[in-house]
Amino acid sequence: MLNIVILAAGLGKRMQSNLPKVLHTIAGRSMLAHVLDGARALNADSIVVVVGHGAEQVKTAFCTQTDLQFALQEPQLGTGHAVQQAIPLLKEDGEDDVTIVLYGDVPLVQLSTLQALLDARQEGLAVLTEILPDPTGYGRIVRDLNGKVRAIIEHKDANEAERAIKEVNTGIIAAPTAALKRWLAQLNNNNAQGEYYLTDIIGMAVADGVNVAVAHPQASFETLGVNSRMQQAELERLWQSEQARRQLEAGVTLADPARFDVRGQLVCGRDVFIDVGCVFEGLVTLADGVRVGPHCVLRDAQIGAGTQIEAFSHLDQAQVGHDARIGPYARLRPGAKLSNHTHVGNFVEIKNTNLGEGSKANHLAYVGDADIGARVNIGAGTITCNYDGVNKFRTVIEDDAFIGSDTQLVAPVRVGRGATIGAGTTLTVDAPADQLTISRVKQTTIAGWTRPVKKAK
Ligand code: UD1
Ligand code: MG
Q1: 173 in the same domain as 107
Q2: What is the pLDDT of residues 189-245, one digit of tens each?
Q3: Roughly how many angstroms between the first and final C-alpha of the chain, as a whole number?
Q4: Looking at the structure, do residues 51 and 138 belong to the same domain, yes or no?
Q5: What is the pLDDT of residues 47-96, one digit of tens each?
Q6: For residue 65, is it within any domain?
């Protein structure tokens, strides 16, 4: 059985925030959510989050995630004491039982590194360590003359010689569950900080003749913790540059890898180009040859091959077919489904609408709750009046219709196939196919009219 214990009871005072630290985000998701990704990818049999400061807020934020259990640590007496609180929730069924301890504020540990930790462990205990040029503040990995790990000594308890050691404890360990329980029960707080140190179990394992191995993270960002807004911002940039690196390696062109933000998952085909300042949220897929112009925001969107999205466009829960042209300054809202070869231009808002193949709305329009056929032209200033203040109604525009500029379509209403609507029409009744429908006051010219002039005082 594999148990994961995530320590998340700490205060996070330096964040200067009312929000518990582990709910602060990296790449748009809470740090705790990132840690849980790793835990779930390992197929853990149980995941226990140790909460303390802001416990209710943390529990509420994750209340729908039924694979989690919470243990309350109150007061917080150290990392060993924190793991003790999780003990009753750990699962055991034999010799292979293992428990991994992760930190809720060290969000970016990758699956491959956790796997390496488990591999290093074999039957014994494994510690994730790294060599730091400046190890100040960290627990030091003390080895014997044969190079075998003997203990972890916390910075505040270390002597001069120990402080010179550059190999440090990242805090992440994997231990045999039954032995872990035994060791935790023997912890005391006779140390410089008066805390129950999880790290004291390393010395106990050595005394018990249990093998202590180490593993190392593949990338240095994996073990960085967040204690302040500054560290959060730094880790955000490191993580974004890692995501940029992965896209570049997969063949995507980024105009500037330093101005690229993915807050979710971005899946790209071949020869995709992304200009500066774009933000991708949720699940976004860009098919082969898609070009995204500068400063676009795409959230949960699927874009077909060869489509171009021009500068400053905003797409949210939208689908676009292949070879379409969107923007600049287009807004596609939830339920916008644009077919192939469609054109949507500047200051056009489309919501909950199907736009058929080759149809165009090139300038200044609101198109909501509509079913629009193929090859339809929607003129500048067209508005679907879909809302009476209480209910919403659909507008249907059949294939090859032409909607003149400044038309209001008062839904529910239907424009027949091939119909033409004259500019300035307020359409309240269905327009028949293939005919010109127009509602416009007849133009008159007033004979002999003169412009008023300013009266003399
Ligand atoms: C700990 C390690 C140290 C390691 C360092 C890596 C111990 C004794 N020391 O030190 O060897 O080099 O991390 O960053 O384990 N927490 C609780 N309850 C508590 C105390 C802490 O949940 O009572 C949580 C914190 O929220 C945090 C994590 O445990 O997520 C680590 O706590 P922290 O106080 O940062 O430990 P360090 O002193 O930095
Ligand atoms: Mg710390």
Answers
A1: yes
A2: 999 999 999 999 999 999 999 999 999 999 999 999 999 999 999 999 999 999 999
A3: 97
A4: yes
A5: 999 999 999 999 999 999 999 999 999 999 999 999 999 999 999 998 78
A6: yes
pTM of the complete model: 0.93
Cβ distance 128 to 172 under 8 Å? yes
Q: Is the dihedral of CA 84, 88, 93, 94 positive or negative?
A: positive
- CA–centroid distance, 156 to ligand 2, in Å, is 13
CA of 362 to the centre of ligand 1 (A): 57
Residues with CB under 6 A from ligand 1: 7-10, 50, 52, 73, 76-79, 81-82, 103-105, 138-139, 152, 154, 168-171, 197-199, 225
Domain termination site, one of 169, 199, 223: 223
Beta strand pairing status for 370-372 and 395-397? Answer: parallel
Examine the domain organization and report whether 281 and 415 are in the same domain: yes
- Which atom number of ligand 1 is nearest to the Cα of residue 78? 23
Residue 162: predicted pLDDT: 98
**pLDDT score of 62:** 97
- Has residue 122 got a pLDDT over 90? no
Q: List active site positions.
A: 363
Q: Write out the two tokens for 297.
A: 């925001």
Residue whose entry in the numeric block shows the structure tokens 């748009």: 28
Q: How far is the CA of 79 from the centre of ligand 1 (A)?
A: 5
The pLDDT value given to residue 94: 86
Q: Which atom of ligand 1 approaches the CA of 169 most closely? A: 12
pLDDT bin (cut points 50, 70, 90) of residue 172 is: very high
285 and 429 co-located in one domain: yes
Domain assignment of residue 418, given as a range: 229-437
* Residue minimizing CA distance to atom 37 of ligand 1: 138
Q: Clarify whether residues 209 and 283 are in a common domain.
A: no
Q: Which atom of ligand 1 is nearest to the CA of 139?
A: 11
- CA of 139 relative to ligand 2 center, distance in Å: 10
pLDDT at 189: 98
Return the CATH number at 191. 3.90.550.10
Cβ-proximal residues to 112 (8 Å cutoff; 6+ apart), any chain: 218
